[in-house]
Write a structure and sequence with these properties.
- The protein is built from nine helices and five strands.
- By secondary structure, it is α/β, with parallel strands linked by helices.
- It has a five-stranded parallel β-sheet with strand order 2-3-1-4-5, with helices on both faces.
- The relative contact order is 0.20.
- Helix 1 crosses helix 9.
Length: about 220
Amino acid sequence: MHVIYLAGGIASGKSTVSRTMRELGAELIDLDELSREALGPGSRILPQIRAEFGDDVINPVGGVRRDLLAQRAFASTERTVTLEEIELPLIDELLRARVAALAEQERLEREKDPGAPEKVVVVEVPLLDRMRGSFDMADEIIGVVCPVPARRARAAQRGMDPRDFDRRLQQQPSEAYVRAHCSHIFNNIRTMDVFVQEVRDWWHEREAQGWENVPKRGASSAKA
């Protein structure tokens, strides 16, 4: 099994890349979905979330009111770090379990059919610097970058307040950080059809190479 970390900030085009790779046969793991699971009803971290961010962040069915939590967590760097210290260990645990399940699925498939294709797993990573403790799971790390004005406009089209976008942007790793840690960068500055074709071309090239592992870059670098 080959595991790819796909890094990119808010509204950079990461979802377009992952969607294209899924069409080409990838298994997808979205860390935002794992975050929703980590904050769902019955999660063991909810008492900590309630204690740090208020009783009212818990909704009537026992999950988290994500908009309210985001509003409070992104109010300052200190509050953001507090949320990450609570949530990220559980997200890491859920990610490892998901990857292990896919590896077991591949093993069983190959027991039945030795010629079964290798699974390629793409993990969408919005905050690459926060996942450094999970880099050991990645066989390669790739990234998506896009000029900030284009990202801000794209986020606004989705209904995001520009001030919220700017707050979130400030909490995310810089483009320099993403470039320093990725073996390949998709630059999302072209039309959609050209961008998607670039992704397809990269996939077919790596597939032809047999998905050989790529050394991870910048393992000891600090956040830029």
